[in-house]
Structure formats: structure tokens, C-alpha cells
Amino acid sequence: MSRPTWYAKVPVRKTRDWTDKERVQILTLRKQGEGIQSISARFNTDRVRIYNQIRLMRKAAQHRCFKCGKPLSEEDLQLKKARRSRTRLIFACNECRKKFREYKIKNRKKALRKGLCGSCWDKPVVPGRTMCRNCISSTYRRRILNGVCGICGKRPLETEVLCRPCADKMKKKRLAYA
Ligand SMILES: [Zn+2]
Ligand SMILES: [Zn+2]
Ligand SMILES: [Zn+2]
């Protein structure tokens, strides 16, 4: 169905994105008495990562911020509930989210001024865009996996990869070039 684009050729980033489903699986296996070694083999990763995921799940179960460990506020919990994402369980408190946001904005600006990607702050930016090829690709894929439009990242998917407004825009563009 999907046409081969350069998106498909760029390798996926090394850091693994765990889904809540996988996290629950890990915890369930652990509760059933399966060893960490065997669980890490199942998920094709190392023991440290499995321990980390278990720790994150414990915090999530206690409604605590995954970063600082403080209890989440009522407002945080509401936001968490409303999140349309495949990682809903793991959540940061308002303070940590704010800190992370500021840190990201600062680095993004610094990188873009130097002609580097605003997302990984490492590779050269694609002319006319704010990200490098690699990041455009992984952002696009992550959005689709999270059920939102690959282009705008805001609206829910209506076609396989796009929301209705973006799909219409693309269609118009294609027609214009046809
Ligand atoms: Zn926090
Ligand atoms: Zn990048
Ligand atoms: Zn869109």
C-alpha cells in the first residue's frame, strides 16, 4: 500500500520506544515469577532496561511523576487521562514537563541557529524544514504509531498516515503537480 519513500530507508533511532502494552507485559511476566534475564531475552534487550521499565511502571501505579517521583496533582492526572498515546501510563508532573519543555526550546533554537536539526540537535537540517532527515522520519512514524497525523501531529488519523485536512492539502498539491 505505502510507496517506498526515503522515509522508509532511514534507520530507526537506537533508543527504544516502549509502549504501555509492552510495559504491562513485562510487569505481568515478572509477577508470574519469570526472571529478569529471561524477560530481557524475550524483549531482545538488556536487564537494565527491563529494570527501568519495571521501576517506571511502579511509579505510574502510584500516580507519581516518572522523573522526580513526586505525586501527580489532580490536574496532571486529568491530563494523563486525556492523553491519546500509546504511552499513557508513564507521566511527568507539571514542573518536570515545564523544565523539559524549556530545555528543549532552548536547545532547539541554539541548534537551528547553527543550521542543525531542531530535534536531535546533531545532524544538518533539511533546507526549508526544522529537522534533519532522520528526525523527520522518526517523528512521522512516532506520530502515526500514536494515532495522530504524520504531518501536523495534532489531529487524529483519518487516512492511514494523515488527518483529513492534511490529506486534502496533499491531494491538492498532488493535483497541482499532476
Ligand atoms: Zn516531576
Ligand atoms: Zn535530527
Ligand atoms: Zn494533519
Would you write up a description of this structure?
Residues 6-13 have low confidence and may be disordered. This protein has helices at 6-9, 20-31, 36-42, 47-61, 74-82, 94-113, 133-145, 164-177. The chain has one domain (6-146). The protein has 178 residues and is an all-alpha fold. 53% of the residues lie in helices and 0% in strands. α3 (36-42) crosses α4. The site of one zinc ion has 8 residues, from α6.
SSE diagram, text form:
Blueprint: H1 6-9, H2 20-31, H3 36-42, H4 47-61, H5 74-82, H6 94-113, H7 133-145, H8 164-177
The structure holds zinc ion (3 copies).
One zinc ion (ZN) binds next to helix 8.
Mean pLDDT: 87
Q: Tell me about the biggest sheet?
A: none
Going by helix content, strand content and strand pairing, the class is mainly alpha
- Helical residue percent band: 40-55%
Assembly state (oligomeric): single chain
**Estimated radius of gyration:** 19 Å
Report the order of strands and helices. Answer: HHHHHHHH
The backbone outline, from C-alpha atoms, is globular
Number of helices: 8
Q: Tell me the number of strands.
A: 0
Bound molecules: zinc ion
Question: What distance lies between the first and last C-alpha atoms, to the nearest angstrom?
Answer: 20 Å
Question: How many domains, as an integer?
Answer: 1
What is the beta-strand fraction? Answer: under 5%
Ranges where pLDDT stays below 50 over 5 or more residues in a row are 6-13
